[in-house]
Each structure stands twice: as structure tokens, then as C-alpha cells.
Amino acid sequence: MKIHPLITDSADLADLCARFARSPFVAVDTEFMRENTYWPDLCLIQIADGKEAAAIDPKAPEIDLAPLLALMVDNTDVLKVFHAGGQDVEIVFNLTGKTPNPIFDTQIAAMAIGQGEQIGYSSLIDSWLGIQLDKGARFTDWGRRPLDKRQIDYAIGDVTHLSRVFPMILERLKKLGRGSWLDDEMERLADPAHYVNEPDQAWQRIKANGRKPEMMGRLKALAAWREHEAQNKDLPRGRIMKDETLADIAGQPPRAQAELAKVRGLSSSWANNGIGARMMAALAEAKPMPADEIPGREDRRPGPGKDGALVADLLKLLLKIRAKEISVAPRLLARSDDLQHLAAGHRDGLSILEGWRFEQFGRDALALVEGQLAFAVKGGKLRMTRTTERSEAA
User: Fold this and answer.
1) 86 near 304, Cβ under 8 Å?
2) What is the pLDDT of residue 390?
3) Residue 178: enclosing H or E segment and its boundaries?
């Protein structure tokens, strides 16, 4: 495989992307820093198609990333391959407002061929290629310039190895007939809605006691205000204000800015500085949350009751058995929320009662809930028994 020197020139990048545009797939990875920023600070982009590979420096002066971004989001003939690519996809979305299309994630694919629920990249490469990766540069400062040879070699290795492993995984999926099993997961990964940071929805990520409309309205207003502050300053939202402090203020709002000096988690300077004033203005403009917008407690955790909880435990056992039988990660077959809902008597909108999941697991899960399937120990091994068949034989 041809390895290019670090690309820092727009013309070289355009030429590279023109060649990649004719490839069936490209393996993609990024290096970024986000410990001290709201937005991920993109430091390096690596790409390979099995024939050639390169690292691209997005911090190079005046480099134009447009050809690369067009390849990612506009060229639907080239499959974009990632490993655990959620944060990589987020970066592309932040730059373009779109997600890579079409997309394939080898960590998700590994679930369908029995390699665990979240296999790491190093373990994946070791299992398929027998290569043990040097992790020494993993936690390096990618924002520092110039990048040294060890950093660049490490980064490019992520995509050169991935471009070799991807065809192998794809072939395994085809032999097992499980390619379609991944459609929902890949669509979820590529769904732009997962990467939109809407300030008006930020309150949904914050745990708060109480459901009074006035308190919930303040929570929503404060969360939106904090999100705007964090975005404008490009700081992590926790640097503006911790979740716990925000929830406390929503529950017991100060009557005047001067009282902010006594709020745990805030600097005393908030009592008379600009950020404190802006927060007080957000509080003053907060309106009670409409009743139909306030989430019920059961929306966050389905309540199947004591008997339902026991049924959910049986469903988890069934899931573990079935996943082992067909060599697939349990999480790909069913999520815990689906099991809780099924145990609580819900049927509508459950993915385990549709498509391949129903055939592989949902049918038996439904039979267990409806008393048509039972567990039995035969020959020292736990097995499932059809209760209807047994009664007919009797």
C-alpha cells in the first residue's frame, strides 16, 4: 500500500480525493482534542482505500478541505468505513451539517459475527491480522505542531489496517447472511438528529428532582442559556456550570444576582459579573413548562412491577442463551429497554418484534412472556421448552 507524506496542500488533497472518489470504499479515522473545548478540535484526518493511504493536516495554513468533505457526504458511490465512528461522524456533521453517506462501522459489524458488543480497535486488528498495535502515541497531543513521525505513522496505521480488515468482515457477514442485520444500526449511526446540539433540548440530559412546571421551565431556560454560553465561548458546558448546580438553581432560584455568591458550585464573582447577569436574565424569562412537555417518571424507566421485573430477568436470560447459540452480541439482538417494555406488556414499536430480530429472538421472547415457552434443565444444560407442545403430547 502506498503511504503518502503528510498532506498539507490543497492541490495534493484534491488529487487524492479525486482518486478515492473512484474507490468502492475508504477507511476513515480522525484525531481530535476536546478536553478544553465545546466543539471537537480536529487535528488530523486519516484515509485509505487499500491501495493508498494518507494523513491530512486540517490545521495546515489555508488548506481547503472541501474535496474531502464532498467525498464524505456527497459521493454516495464510495462506502465510508469507520471503527466506533460516532465521534468521527459528529466531526463531519459539525463541518458540513451532513453525515457521511453511505456508512459502515466495523465495531457494529463485529457484533453480528460474535466479536463482542464493543470490541476495541486494537483487539479487532489483533484478532483478524495478528498485529499488536503500538499504543504509545494514542494519548499524544494531536494539536501540537509539528507532528512527529511516530504520531503520523501511528495515525495512518489506523486506516491501513482497517482497510485490510473491512473486506474480511464483509465477507464473513455475507457467508453468514447477516448483512441486513446491520441496516438499523448503521442508519442510527448516520442519523443527523443524533449530532444536533439544540439548546432548547439540552435540559433533557440533566437529572433533576421534581416535575413542577415552574421548576421544569427554569431548568429548560437555564440549560439552553448554558448551551449558548458554552458554544459561544467554545468551552465544555461543565466549565460554564455543572449539571448539579444548574439543577439546584432551577429548583431554588436566587431572587437577586447578589445571592449567586452563596450558590455552591459558582464563583463569588458571579454576584456582579456579566455571566451572572445573563444567567439571571435567562431565569427571569423562563416560563412554566407545558404539562404535555413534562416527561413522566415512567418515561425514563418503564415500570413493569415486581412480576414484570422477574419476567424481564427471564428475558435477559433468554437473550443471553440465544445470543450465544447464534454467536451474536446480545445488544444487537435486543436492548434492555425493549425487554423492559415487553415484560411490562407493551407490544407496539418494539424492534425485537420486527424483521430479523423477531425471527432470531423476538418470537421466543414473546412466547416466554405469554407462557408458551419455559426453561428446563436437560443433561445438566439449560434449555427452552415449548409448553404448548408439551401439553398436546400429554
Assistant:
1) no
2) 44
3) none
DSSP annotation of 148: P
- 246: which 3 cell numbers? 444548574
> Are 315 and 343 a contacting pair, CB within 8 Å?
yes
Of 63, 11, 18, the closest CA to residue 42 belongs to: 63
Instruction: Give yes or no for a contact between 60 and 8, defined as CB atoms under 8 angstroms apart.
Output: yes
Strands of the chain (E only): list them.
2-3, 25-33, 41-48, 52-56, 79-82, 103-105, 373-378, 381-386
Reduce the DSSP state of residue 33 to 3 states and report it: strand
- pTM, two decimals, is 0.86
CA dist., res. 294 & res. 213, Å (int)? 7
Q: Report which residue type is found at 127.
A: S
> How do 373-378 and 25-33 pair as beta strands?
unpaired
Distance (Å, whole) CA 388 – CA 94: 55
| Whether residue 368 has pLDDT greater than 50 | yes
Q: What is the pLDDT of residue 391?
A: 42
Residues 6+ away with beta carbon under 8 Å from 114: 327, 328, 329
Confidence of residue 297 (pLDDT cuts 50, 70, 90): low
Mean pLDDT over 195-223 rounds to: 94
Q: Which helix (H) or strand (E) holds 237?
A: helix 237-240
Judge whether 210 and 271 are in contact, CB under 8 Å.
no
Percent of the chain with pLDDT over 90: 82
pLDDT, tens digit, 9 for 90 and up, residues 120-157? 999 999 999 999 987 766 778 999 999 999 999 999 99
With the CA atoms of 228, 229, 235 and 238 taken in that order, what torsion angle do they form, in degrees rounded to the nearest 10?
-90
Q: Which triple of cell numbers denotes residue 226? A: 448554558
pLDDT at res. 305: 58
**Residue 26: strand pairing partners:** 80
Residue 385: HSE in the Cβ half-sphere, 13 Å Cα cutoff? 12
pLDDT at 238: 96
